[in-house]
Design the sequence.
């Protein structure tokens, strides 16, 4: 069937791909990938031949040029499978403009859902998952990073960030200063891979740890929401009484 098929691929362990995604990879007329080498390798691992099907690179740098070509294929009745380098397309990865263009052109679109590092991290961190906010990568420059963190101080949800190992310690330290060092947090590293690790603690503890121990690998940082101030009825009444007394003087 013609259409755009957005495929989730593994974030580390090659077997974290759905049977449906493999079926689509086996049957699509056109294969498109952010990184054609990693898609080829993934297909090889799962015994799916590329054959004589076109394998087209589609990423942020060539998107505007390649997009019309991919959409043209769908208009011609072809099925186009797109995979980003790892995990789910559009989650801090390319694919958004491709989907928008397909929707605007009224072409059929569907997705084969699967791995997302943010979701795996939420599953393992032990922080509340009833409300969470995906904040992606913070800006690299310190000033911009601090400003972005200040914009998140009042968010009543678990915050989810992607971070590079180089900047992890600085990000945790800024997070502690701006959001509060006592906030519960977790650093999830190398998820689904051989050296998977989840380190839980307060922002202060985690900042101190990674200042001493340089982190390696791929990282998701989760920060729990600040303690909501619990105000008892007695306290409120006493405060109101005080204010009233003050007014009547
Ligand atoms: N599309 C991907 C997804 O669905 O999660 C994210 C792509 S983004 C370019 C790459 C970032 O995701 C990494 O820098 C890291 O923050 C996070 N990430 C990806 N794989 C990871 C893993 N196995 N463990 C921890 N973090 C991971």
Sequence:
């Amino acid at each position: 069937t013609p259409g755009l098929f957005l495929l989730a691929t593994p974030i580390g362990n090659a077997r974290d791909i759905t049977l449906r995604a493999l079926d689509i990879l086996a049957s699509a007329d056109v294969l498109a990938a952010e990184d054609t080498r990693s898609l080829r390798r993934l297909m090889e691992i799962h015994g799916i031949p590329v054959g004589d099907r076109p394998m087209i690179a589609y990423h942020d740098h060539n998107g505007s040029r390649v997009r019309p070509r991919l959409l043209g294929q769908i208009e011609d009745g072809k099925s186009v499978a797109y995979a980003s380098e790892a995990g789910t397309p559009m989650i801090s990865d390319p694919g958004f403009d491709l989907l928008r263009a397909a929707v605007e052109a009224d072409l059929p679109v569907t997705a084969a859902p699967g791995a997302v590092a943010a979701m795996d991290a939420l599953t393992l961190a032990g922080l509340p998952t009833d409300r969470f906010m995906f904040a992606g990568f913070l800006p690299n420059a310190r000033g911009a990073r601090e400003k972005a963190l200040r914009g998140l101080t009042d968010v009543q949800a678990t915050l989810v960030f992607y971070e590079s190992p180089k900047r992890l310690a600085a990000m945790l330290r800024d997070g502690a200063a701006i959001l509060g060092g006592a906030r519960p947090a977790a650093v999830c590293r190398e998820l689904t891979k051989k050296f998977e690790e989840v380190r839980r603690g307060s922002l202060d503890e985690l900042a101190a740890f990674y200042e001493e121990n340089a982190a390696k690998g791929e990282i998701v940082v989760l920060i729990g929401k600040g303690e909501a101030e619990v105000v008892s009825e007695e306290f409120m009444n006493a405060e109101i009484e005080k204010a009233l007394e003050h007014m009547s003087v």
